[in-house]
Every structure is written in C-alpha cells, then in structure tokens.
Amino acid sequence: MSAADSSTDDQLIELVHATRSLGRFGYERVELHYNHVGNYAEACVVSVVDGDELVDPVPDEVVTLVLRRRISQHERSGDGVWMSYVLVCWMDGLVEEHENYDNQPRWLAGHPTEHDFILERERFPRASGFPAWLESGALLEPLMPEAKDRLVIGSSKARALCGEIGVEAMHLYHEALVRSMEVQEHVMSLVGAAGVEVDLEGRAAVTFTAATSIITARAHVLGTTDATSSETPGRWRWAWSEPDAFAPSSIQFSRLVRNFGEAEQVPGLCTPELPLNEVLHPRATALLLLVASKPITGVWAHFALENERGETVALLLEHPDFEVGRHPIDVTAQYALAATLNLTVTDHRALISGYAKHVADVEFVAESESLLLWRAPEGEVAFDLDDSGRVVAAQFTAALTADEARGASVLGLGGADPVGVAAGGAGNGGAASGRKRWLRRWLGR
C-alpha cells in the first residue's frame, strides 16, 4: 500500500468515527451528506431512528475532514473531483461511501450560481470532458426544500442567532471558533475511536478507553438541552441554574461564564434558560455556547453527550494530553476557511481577527476593509473579503530563510505580494516575502 493510500484510509477511518459521533441516540444508520460545486457548499447529517429521518447541522471539524478527503481525491487522480458525497454508517458496523462525479447533486437547501459552475470547471479540469449539466449550469430543484435557510451559510435564520443569544455571545463564538477547531481536531485524533464512560455525579470525569490508551479527563458541565419534538421545542439550561443536578465541582466553570455574562452584560450567558427552536437547534446550541465559553474558562476541549432521552449535555474537558500548541498558520488558515461553511458563522472579520488573541506568535493586521492578515515567524496569510465582508480567498506567503533574506538584500528585492501585501511585516521581523501559494478557496462569491 502506498503512503497516499494509507493516508486516505486514515482519513476515512477518522471521518467514520466523527460521523458516528453525530448520530442521534438509537440510530439505525447515520448519513453524512455533502455537496460542493465551485464556491457553493452545503452539508447535513441524517440519523435514521425508528424509521424517522432526523436532520442535524454538521460541526466545523467534520466539514474539515470531508474537505480534506475531497482535495485528497483530486490530488490522487488529477482528473476532476466528486461534487457530492454520502457516507453511511450502520449501527452494526457496516460503512458505505458514495462519491458522485458525474450526476448533479440533489441540493439540500439552495443551489450554486453560474459563477460556481465556471469555477468548478476551472479548478478541477477533466481530460474526458464535463457532464452536460456542469457545462450548461442547468439546475435541479432542491431535494429538501423545507431545509432552505437552515443549512445554507449566511441565511436569515443564521443571522437571527444574534437575536436569540445576543450579539456579544456570538462575537465570543466567532473569535474563539478557529482555535477551538484546532484543539478539537487534536482531541478527536486521540479519542475519536474510544469507548466513553461518563461520571457526572461522583468525580465529574469522562474516561475514554482506546485500544492502547485510557484517558480520564476532568469534566465541567456547561449546560444541557431538552429532547425536542414538534410538540415540545425544548430549552437550553445553564448548569449553574441546576445546582442539585450535578456534582458541585463540575459546574464551577458554568458559574464562571455566568459571572462574566453579568459583568460584561451578555444576556445569553447569564439567563438561566434559552428556548430552543428552528434557529437554536439542540446540538448546534450546545456547540455554539461551548465555543463561546472557551476563552472565558481557558479550557479549549469539549464533548457533547446525547443520552437515551435525547438530551444533550455540554461538557468542557481538562486533560494534559488535550493541550496542543498552534499549527503553522497556513494549516490553521484551512480551519478558518472550513469554518466559513458553518451556518452559524456570520462575522468573518471576527473569525479571522479572534484567532490571534488566543495563540502566541500570531499577529492580526487589518490592512483594509477587504484585506486581513495573519503574520507569524513562518510567514503570512492574506485573507481577501468581498463587499459583504465574507472571506473569498486566502494566500500563504512563507517567510524567507536567513540565506534567502541575505540574497534578497544583496539583490535589492522587495518581494512585493501580488495581492498588495507589503513585504516583511512586523510579525516576521521585517523579512522579505518568500514563496507564495494559494490556499484552497472553498467559499465566497
């Protein structure tokens, strides 16, 4: 088996574990659906429970795994790429993987534009030619019209989240999201395939048992959601509002979040309950508030547990093995681009600027309304924004080595950046710009 084949197998194993973790309690099978043409992408996860299909959004870290698999497929074949993908995980352990190269995807919510079809043809050329629908841009009707505005990025319902939990809490979420994704993927690499034992009444811990290791992490209960139905939409309850439901030591961080909310006047963090509805979906609500709470508590690993009653318990986890330094900024930029696919992400500027607040050696610079920069010792990432403030592209420029910098100085080279970034910013010691490469441009009009 080649190294590329081995890497692909590892990708699939990780994606299967992640997909299974998203399944509702008691599922017969769980399906991950993903469509991508040009700059348009959409995703959902479907749990089949007692014959009912229950649709949930897809967390950022899982979107990242699918995107990596798509790009890996293109890099292996060099001839086009699939445009829709379905991963089916059965309860008995069977797995089905479906990659669609030729037929038009059955759109989940919206649909791509003519510009997206052009971009798809330019980015992923095919020696054998394109199917007629991709050449013409003829669209089919969405398969799930009732899901419209629920799964598509930038929808009115996504923006309505600000009204539900407060603008301030949403700002915390945006600023913490990229660092959260970075840490959470590390956590998933350690415990994604492990068995889980939860004790919230005694020692307040979660134990992950894998084939070769056992990790027992301290658990902090942030809050819970009710099971929801058409008759009972349910609610989110902060753990500090239920002091008798959990061990006292497990809700200290929940109280810390409440105190912050009161001091900074963030209603969503200090109101005992939030009603769940079509905007505040149970799992999405738990993940959103977990991420928003991370910079307040200083704990960056989380776990969302669904019990047999359909209730979600949101936990922050502490363990030395869960701590991880930052990745190189060109790698982290891929997380940022993946985050823009999340329906809850509406402030791309806060998404980019916030990361630098939570890691060392990364400087954020707002060059203009349409150009944001990360500067670090290893180089610089330039994010281009469109007129609506959405990230549409990112380019990484590696810092020059010492020998390269000396050569540039002798030759008098300025290393001007093609997107207008001045060579050698404050974050890299004034070194001239080095090797440049475009990062994946996944989203943006």
Please provide a written account of the structure:
By secondary structure, the chain is an alpha+beta fold. 33% of the residues lie in helices and 25% in strands. It has helices at 3-22, 60-77, 114-123, 132-136, 156-159, 161-165, 167-191, 252-264, 267-270, 282-297, 329-339, 348-355, 402-411, and strands at 29-37, 40-49, 52-56, 84-90, 95-100, 195-199, 205-209, 214-225, 235-238, 273-275, 301-306, 312-318, 363-368, 371-376, 379-385, 391-399, 433-438. The strands form three sheets. Strands 6, 7, 8, 9, 10, 11 and 12 form a seven-stranded antiparallel β-sheet that branches. It has a five-stranded antiparallel β-sheet with strand order 3-2-1-4-5. Strands 13-14-15-16-17 form a five-stranded antiparallel β-sheet, covered by helices on one side. Residues 139-159, 408-433 and 440-445 have low confidence and may be disordered.
Strand content: 25-35%
Taking Cα atoms only, what radius of gyration do you get, to the nearest Å? 22 Å
> How would you state the average pLDDT, rounded?
77
Q: How many helical stretches?
A: 13
Measured between the Cα atoms of the first and last residue, the distance is 40 Å
Please describe the biggest sheet, giving its number of strands, its sense, and whether it closes into a barrel: 7 strands, antiparallel
Number of strands: 17
- Give the CA-based shape: globular
Secondary-structure element pattern, one letter each = HEEEHEEHHHHHEEEEHHEHEEHHEEEEHE
Helical amount among residues, as a percent range? 25-40%
Low-confidence stretches: 139-159, 408-433, 440-445
Structural class: alpha+beta
